[in-house]
Amino acid sequence: MTHARAERAALSDLLDQVGPDAPTLCTGWTTYDLAAHLVLRERRPDAMPGIGLPPLAGYTASVQRALKARHPYPELVSLVRKPGGAYKLLPILDSTVNTLEMYVHHEDVRRARPGWEPRELPEDFERLIWNRLGMTARLMLRRSPVGVVLHRLGGGVTLGGKSDGPKVEVTGRAGELLLFCFGRQQHARVDLTGDDEAIARLMSAGLGV
Length: 209
Description:
Elements: H1 3-18, H2 31-43, H3 57-70, H4 73-81, H5 86-89, H6 91-110, H7 123-140, E1 147-152, E2 157-161, E3 167-172, H8 174-181, E4 191-193, H9 196-203
Parallel strand pairs: 1-3
Antiparallel strand pairs: 1-2, 3-4
């Protein structure tokens, strides 16, 4: 089983377990909203552009609301559990596009609950996350007000944020660094080194794709 499929299965199990009204780390979203978002990503390509383009966000939000109105929560979770569209036919595409997405949203549900602890990820999954992060860190950190130096525990450095001015060094395992760069700074287990003001600015910045 690919890591994308494993994270999808674990996320779906957790969504079933916690129910439709549980909190997530996605601001303003319950687990019902998150399930609708994931179904939209895979099964409503007409609404996908609004995920990243603010002028189209209103249409995307309306489609997400319609999915919730049309499908009871268990039905949406069942749709999340099974890859949709091209991802069903092309496992390589599912792995390429959805591995990080499923991991981050799995943690969005896990870390919104009290008493959570970081998972020990398999080493090959850590390496995969780090390789993908090396390709996308500059994009995810493009809105950082300071320079960022990512240090992976176990080896590896990558850069992002502003090229001039103060820099903050962020150290942790690859999965934690990914969550940090995805805008989950407050819930990522990382160590920060740098000027206090620069760290405060980075911690409150709107990071992510």
